[in-house]
Amino acid sequence: MTLPRPIIAVIEDEEHLAQGLIFNLEAEGYRTHHEADGEAALRWLLKATDPASGDRPAAILLDVMLPGRDGFSIASTLRQAGRYTPVLMLTARGRSEDIVAGFAAGADDYLPKPFDLGVLLARLSALLRRMQWQQPSSLPAQPTATGKSFTLSGHIIDLDALEIRPLDPTGIGAKIVHLTLMEAELLRYLLDHPGKIISRSELLENVWHVREDTDTRAIDNFIVRLRRYLEPDPAKPIHLLTIRAVGYRFIPEP
Q1: Which CATH number covers residue 192?
Q2: 217-249, pLDDT tens digit by residue?
């Protein structure tokens, strides 16, 4: 039985660029769906990425500067709606602040224009290899000795599966949290440096690979989300601490 070719959603308003992407993606064996308007794209994506949809896109190539609604807003709305299809943002805006803002909105990767087609295809392939993070787990995993799974405040952090699961899956309100790639990478870095005070610029360089002397508060959005996932009381964190005017500190056992 032949599996259907993956669908790649191309959300791009520059017609020549969109048609070039479509041509090359289909030459690589993908199917495509193209939208040029932000509002129309969001409507289609919310419908197409619904779990009940039988023909969901495998990934989204999303331009930032779109008529009607920008890519940041589209990505954020999809994530708030619980739609975890991988998003690769494409934009001419390559400043550190824009890159981190894209990740904060829910993007999984970010490619400034102009880009090399081979790089885009390689990054897209890497995102598709991670598609298992979208799939719900039927059984809670147990902590392992590999360093890839951790327990914290009644949760199992599974970085390979990009999930945070409750230790007691039958408990009231117990649910699986699906992490974006960047949420997982940030959490991985914090877990690898317990007790250390980590500056925002260090996180920018080592998690987002933005090698500029730029300090941005956009990282705070990620910390807020991780606290919501992990802290017993996110308003009074005991694990993910803010160090005023510097950065953060992860405390595994307060």
Answers
A1: 1.10.10.10
A2: 667 878 988 999 999 899 999 999 999 888 899
Residue tagged 């490619």 (tokens)? 111
Beta bridge partners of 111: 90
Q: Which helix (H) or strand (E) holds 223?
A: helix 219-230
Domain count, the chain: 2
* H or E stretch at 101: helix 96-105
160-to-22, 131, 184, 208, 222 alpha-carbon distances in Å: 31, 11, 9, 18, 19
Distance CA 162, CA 113 (A): 28
CATH of the domain at 22: 3.40.50.2300
In-domain check, residue 146: yes
Query: 148 and 81, same structural domain?
Result: no
Q: Identify the three-state secondary structure at position 87.
A: strand
Give ∠ CA 77-78-82 in degrees, rounded to 5.
115
Joined together, the tokens standing for residue 16 give: 């020549």
Identify residue 186 by its one-letter amino acid code. Answer: L
Is the pLDDT confidence value at 140 over 50? no
Bond preceding residue 112 cis, omega within 30 of 0 = no
- The verdict on 76 and 167 lying in the same domain is no
Give the amino acid at 194. P
The number of beta carbons lying within 10 Å of the beta carbon of residue 189 is 15
* Same-domain check for residues 195 and 234: yes
What six digits make up the tokens of 243? 């160090």
Q: Is 56 left (phi over 0), alpha (psi -120 to 50) or beta?
A: beta
Instruction: Give the count of alpha carbons within 13 A of 208, CB side only.
Output: 29
pTM: 0.69
